[in-house]
Recover the amino acids of this structure.
């Protein structure tokens, strides 16, 4: 029997044949794929011809096609639809893959060929894109430790392998803690909760096999519970459980794992000659240095904290009116902020929600992409890994551009959060391939499924990432789509969120689930005004996490990360009633892998640009200005990592933005005197 993962995929658009693949296929497929890849690598490294771009760099680009197939399928289901077998496989694969890729970067013969090309780069007559791929390949090898010899080399391999294992454990502990905990609610406990929260709590109860509604630690359920439940005791219990994820003692505790990870990262950076892990990490980013990051964060922190402090006073007064004395606590903030929102903006999230139907918001995201870039979306009937998944054929002028898959609903088998990944990336070498892109979210199910405004923003955000993948138009896969600097990658996604706030978009697509009526003008105005509501809180919880992340990776690794976290929060005078958006034991961005380590700031770095980039549309004549849309596609959405991020932004905008645009965007500084 041939392995369905490694066979030719005869499905429409060569989407993985999920229905034919069983969990037993993954391990043998990965072994075979790694063997094939090793044979390809050996052939490149031991080629008796002198190194050329074609026989070395292009050959590397073309190699590993089977591994891509196995991993794209495996990581899709392991993240979005896991089970004990897949978790076990993930534990097994993680060190294997780490060893495999380390094996390539420690292949001295291979590195010599790349280094040889690098030295002769000016005589190779390369296109700009080829020169860029050579630079990135060479830099990647050096940063992976390929130039290390002897004991340093050995130690580097050990560190990398251990880090991969620790990252996986961190994620799995978190998942276990999230799955384990739920809080039963009696019918009385449902008082004060709007219908959609009650529905979600009942659905969660069914899923957990509980005897009635429950609150789980899924963000899409616990956040509205904290926002609406008048039961302070239950809010406290739920909040404490939510923030204790990864810090519950016992087998799933992540605190020691975090300490070990930080230690190993520091050692790794020093082996490579950097003074700290942050220095190493930021070298390839648009920000470049820890100082530039801290500068940006502190410029935002001051006005955000000032706003949060004054908001805390208002909320405390409201709480005292309820007869509760003592300080405002973290489990009180969202509840009183919601009350205040109702009082000041008269915007009732529960009344708003029927206007934000998932299907209509998907249409809205598609419609904007149509007006901006001419993309069209036709539903595609293909079997995927879960019945909740939907797919669309994306075309332009009748030409196939991509397949887009949406997997929107929360379930126990899915990790929390929302993400976008390419199951296949765009490339023209060694053959032309169109991307297959997936958005995974954790929205509460319903009939029809209704979103919060935050959910709708997440949908647009992830779709912005998807556009970055789908509109990619480069030759080499290694620089395609979202393969850009980490602090640049959130620009397309955060920029796309702005289109949700365009009044004509909401007017057309925010229609009532029952009556079909468009959102009343009055409500629409309030939604747009309220979008900046509570930004003191939001900015503070985010920046605090970003500063802790940066502090963890600058200088010496902390022996006790929890103490270091406390020290950082103390140093910035963290408001008492606001928790970090992600505290250390569940800070998956930083500890589940290397992706956002000393890089959590990058959302804000990107926001500086997205505010400024959207202003370019407004200045040019409106959100759907075609010339600006073309400039965006030509210089940012289609270019992947083919040029430095700063260069790309300058080509689009003609200048770099300052922090002011962001502060205005968040409503933290006044845009005109009467605000
Ligand atoms: Zn994102």
């Amino acid at each position: 029997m041939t392995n369905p993962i490694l066979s030719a995929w005869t499905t429409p658009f060569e989407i993985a044949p999920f229905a034919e693949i069983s969990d037993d296929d993954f391990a043998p497929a990965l072994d075979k794929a790694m063997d094939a890849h090793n044979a390809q690598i050996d052939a490149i490294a031991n080629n008796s011809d002198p190194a050329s771009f074609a026989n070395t760099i292009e050959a590397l680009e073309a190699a590993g096609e089977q591994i891509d197939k196995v991993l794209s399928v495996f990581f899709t289901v392991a993240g979005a639809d896991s089970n004990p077998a897949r978790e076990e496989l993930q534990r097994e694969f993680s060190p294997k893959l780490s060893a495999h890729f380390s094996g390539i970067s420690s292949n001295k013969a291979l590195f010599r060929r790349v280094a040889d090309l690098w030295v002769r780069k000016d005589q190779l007559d390369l296109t700009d894109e080829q020169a860029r791929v050579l630079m990135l390949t060479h830099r990647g090898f050096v940063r992976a430790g390929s130039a290390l010899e002897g004991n340093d080399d050995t130690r580097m391999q050990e560190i990398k392998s251990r880090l991969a294992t620790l990252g996986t454990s961190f994620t799995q502990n978190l998942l276990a803690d999230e799955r384990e905990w739920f809080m039963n609610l009696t019918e009385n406990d449902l008082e004060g909760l709007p219908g959609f929260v009650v529905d979600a709590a009942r659905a969660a109860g069914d899923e957990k096999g509980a005897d009635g509604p429950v609150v789980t630690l899924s963000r899409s359920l616990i956040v509205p519970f904290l926002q609406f439940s008048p039961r302070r005791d239950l809010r406290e219990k739920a909040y404490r459980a939510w923030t204790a994820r990864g810090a519950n003692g016992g087998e799933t505790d992540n605190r020691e794992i975090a300490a070990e990870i930080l230690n190993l990262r520091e050692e790794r950076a020093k082996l490579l000659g950097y003074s700290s892990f942050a220095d190493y990490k930021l070298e390839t980013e648009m920000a470049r240095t820890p100082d530039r990051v801290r500068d940006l964060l502190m410029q935002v922190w001051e006005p955000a904290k000032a706003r949060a402090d004054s908001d805390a006073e208002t909320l405390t007064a409201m709480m005292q009116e309820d007869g509760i004395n003592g300080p405002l606590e973290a489990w009180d903030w969202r509840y009183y902020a919601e009350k205040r929102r109702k009082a000041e903006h008269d915007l009732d999230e529960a009344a708003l929600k029927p206007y934000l139907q998932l299907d209509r918001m998907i249409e809205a995201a598609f419609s904007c992409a149509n007006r901006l870039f001419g993309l069209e979306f036709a539903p595609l009937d293909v079997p995927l890994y879960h019945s909740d998944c939907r797919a669309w054929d994306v075309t332009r002028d009748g030409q196939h551009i991509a397949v887009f898959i949406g997997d929107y609903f929360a379930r126990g088998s899915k990790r929390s959060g929302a993400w976008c990944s390419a199951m296949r990336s765009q490339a023209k070498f060694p053959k032309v391939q169109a991307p297959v892109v997936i958005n995974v979210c954790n929205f509460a199910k319903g009939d029809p499924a209704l979103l919060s405004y935050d959910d709708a923003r997440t949908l647009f955000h992830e779709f912005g990432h998807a556009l970055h993948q789908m509109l990619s138009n480069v030759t080499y896969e290694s620089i395609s789509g979202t393969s850009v600097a980490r602090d640049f990658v959130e620009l397309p996604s955060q920029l796309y969120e702005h289109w949700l706030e365009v009044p004509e978009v909401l007017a057309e697509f925010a229609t009532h689930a029952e009556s079909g009526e468009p959102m009343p003008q009055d409500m629409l105005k309030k939604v747009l005004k309220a979008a900046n509501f509570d930004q003191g809180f939001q900015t503070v919880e985010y920046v605090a996490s970003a500063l802790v992340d940066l502090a963890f990776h600058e200088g010496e690794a902390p022996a006790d990360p929890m103490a270091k976290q406390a020290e950082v929060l103390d140093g910035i005078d963290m408001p008492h009633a606001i928790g970090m958006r992600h505290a250390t034991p569940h800070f998956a961005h930083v500890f589940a892998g290397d992706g956002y380590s000393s890089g959590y700031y990058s959302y804000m770095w990107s926001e500086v640009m997205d505010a400024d980039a959207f202003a370019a549309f407004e200045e040019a004549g409106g959100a759907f200005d075609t010339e600006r849309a073309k400039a965006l596609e030509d210089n940012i959405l289609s270019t992947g990592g083919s040029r430095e991020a700063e260069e790309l932004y300058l080509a689009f905008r003609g200048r770099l933005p300052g922090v002011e645009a962001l502060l205005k965007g968040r409503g933290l500084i006044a845009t005109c005197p009467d605000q």
Observations:
- The chain has a mean pLDDT of 94.
